[in-house]
Amino acid sequence: QGDYVATLDKTSALNSLREMEDAITEAESALLQVKLDTAISLRGLRDQIKNLEFEAEESKITLEQSKYESPSTQRQAQIAVEKSERALSVAINNYSLEKQKYAAKMVTEELDLEQQLRRRDEMTAVMDKFTITAPQKGMVIYYKDRGGQKRKAGSSISPFDLTVATLPDLTVMNSLTYVNEIDVSRVKAGQKVRVGVDAFPNKSYTGVVSSVANIGEQLSNTDSKVFETVVQVNEYDPILRPSMTTSNKIVINTLPDVLYLPLEAIFGMDSIPVVYKANGTKQVVLLGETNENQVVVEKGLEKGEKVYLSAPENAEKMKLRGEELIPTIQERAREKALKDAVTPAQTSPAGRPQGFPGGAMPAGMTPGQMPAGMTPPAGAAGQGRMGAGRTGGRRPAGQNGQPANASQTAQPATAPQTAQPETTQQ
Question: Which residue among 3, 142, 252, 396 is least enclosed by CB atoms within 10 Å?
């Protein structure tokens, strides 16, 4: 608290202050001139009134002495008295009017002087604030204007945007990430999020989607449109800092108590998904929901059975099992085709349709081995940049490497399986 943050350039303010000082000097001179004019003018009027009073008194004495004169002389003396009294009355009335006029003029000049003094005091108070200090303890973050430019030496401060720096509340952190336009319809406010920080790989946090942008944008070095998504981090950790890179896994759906396999274990045979079992058979499987790493197996396998993660050398000679599932798989494929015919599928920026069942192409499968009508989707777990109210960035979600012909045991889900939204790199 009280530490130096920045200083605003006082050149323009000093010029304005000098102009205000000149205006104050002029206002003081004008007020003084009005006071002098008032004193001189009113003094002349008072002298005039005094002289008229003497004249009126003299005319009355003359009238008194004319009572022994002829009637005409008496009448002339009477008229002289009336004239002198009327002149005195007019002079007194004029004096009152002049006094009011000069009083109003002095009020005007005094108000003008007070206004100039007040403007100078306000400018002085503003200039005292040109040296900016922290109002409280915290981390200072220099403000970015609407154009994204950070405040620095030489930056112009607009009257409509006076912020120079902020002291964010580090106890409440947001993670800013971007969701691909293909997946944005599945992301909604209130969904749970698993947040990781690249700087601390052993740390994990939870969060909630607080908002999803209504309008997409195109980031640099990307072709697809993305939608800004803000995730509020639930936990407070003093090691978190603004602008740290984070990973964000949005939980789209949770499937408890299901059988699942790594995507590497699924292979395509004439549009039919199969697995190669360790007992030397080739098993048709009915697949369900999937995320970027695993796929749910609805039928065709039992818990504990072992399958290959890559095609064995004698794959073509293995006997096919589970052919009774093929009609169900084909029926689902037809239903999906009809649905896609009614609602056109979204495409990638290059125009390729997205959509292997479950959302990702199994590792080890080439596009030529994929079922007819299916193409590999683009996507990875979202990443962000950590900050007080902000987070961003992205790192591709990897899969554990396995040696060729290694076997994998099908297991029931012991933790919720997460459907990951596709995101683009920030």
Answer: 3
Phi/psi for 256 (5° steps) reads -80, 145
Euclidean distance between CA atoms 373 and 357, whole angstroms: 11
Amino acid at 352: R
Q: Which residues contact 57 (CB under 8 A, 6 or more apart)?
A: none
Do 150 and 243 meet the contact criterion of CB atoms below 8 Å apart?
A: no
Q: For residue 162, give every residue at least 6 positions away whose Cβ sits within 8 Å of its Cβ, in sequence order, or none.
A: none
Q: Find all residues with CB under 8 Å of 168, minimum gap 6, and list them.
A: 138, 139, 141, 242, 387, 388, 389
Residue 77 tokens read as 């003396």
CA dist 369 to 184, 268, 313, Å? Answer: 29, 6, 16
The dihedrals phi and psi of 212, each to the nearest 5 degrees, come to: -130, 130
| Alpha-carbon distances of 261 from 110, 295, 320, 369, rounded to whole Å | 89, 6, 19, 19
Is residue 8 within 8 A of residue 162, CB to CB? The reply is no
- What pTM value is reported for the model? 0.48
What is the rounded CA–CA span in Å between residue 412 and residue 44?
113
Question: pLDDT tens digits for 62-84?
Answer: 888 888 888 888 889 889 889 99
User: Residue 65: how many CB atoms within 10 A of its CB?
Assistant: 12
